[in-house]
Design a protein that fits this description.
six-stranded mixed β-sheet; alpha/beta; globular; two-stranded antiparallel sheet
């Protein structure tokens, strides 16, 4: 097994262990989009577990260096990408900024908080990527500010084709610590799910917008 594969499965193990990710086929969750889903993800729970939080930070730093070299600025996507982004920026000794989903309606009306100079090389941190639409708003904001987006790094992705297409169109690379395939593989290995659950879980990922209707 490759080192990155080991790390991905370990991250998945931790996320399942602390219930940052929950799987429930019998009683699906309803997302804000209205989609029915057998999986629910709240990676912010990792912040409450120092050992896991530090492991994710260290693996994220390694991933960024492997994929993007040495960035000049770390950006977090508000709100869930902010805490991990701060941890990564602190470890790398880099400036940190964060990006709101839209401009504030008062004060300076900033969308980007912090100091971002033109032409700086930025890596953006997210906790979770689903369709990628909200994440890519941060990419657009940073590009519009005159900086260079090297790419995005996230803890987890569902691996939707829609997300792959959206990131490809935006010409923004995306790397993640773990993903849906490795998550359900780890869930099966640990006894969290049974073999017959895999068919349902894989089918959901193919057409999540139609599943459970």
């Amino acid at each position: 097994m490759k080192k990155n594969e080991e790390s991905s499965l370990k991250v998945s193990e931790y996320l399942l262990q602390i219930k940052a990710i929950k799987l429930n086929i019998a009683k699906p969750y309803t997302w804000a989009s209205g989609w029915k889903s057998p999986i629910y993800c709240d990676n912010r729970k990792t912040l409450s577990y120092p050992q896991i939080r530090n492991f994710i930070r260290d693996e994220m730093v390694k991933l960024i260096r492997e994929e993007y070299g040495e960035p000049e600025v770390i950006a977090g996507v508000a709100t869930a990408g902010i805490p991990l982004g701060v941890l990564v920026a602190q470890d790398l000794g880099l400036p940190f900024i964060y990006v709101r989903s839209e401009e504030k309606k008062h004060g300076l009306e900033n969308q980007i908080e912090g100091v971002l100079e033109a032409n700086k090389a930025v890596v953006i941190i997210e906790d979770l990527v689903s369709t990628g639409m909200s994440s890519l708003k941060a990419v657009d904001a940073i590009k519009n500010a005159g900086a260079n987006v090297k790419g995005m790094a996230a803890i987890f992705t569902y691996g939707f084709k829609t997300a792959s297409n959206n990131f490809s169109k935006a010409k923004c690379p995306l790397v993640t610590l773990t993903n849906y395939d490795n998550l359900i593989a780890q869930a099966l290995d640990s006894g969290y799910i049974q073999a017959n659950d895999l068919i349902t879980l894989k089918k959901w990922r193919e057409t999540p917008e139609k599943w459970g209707i």
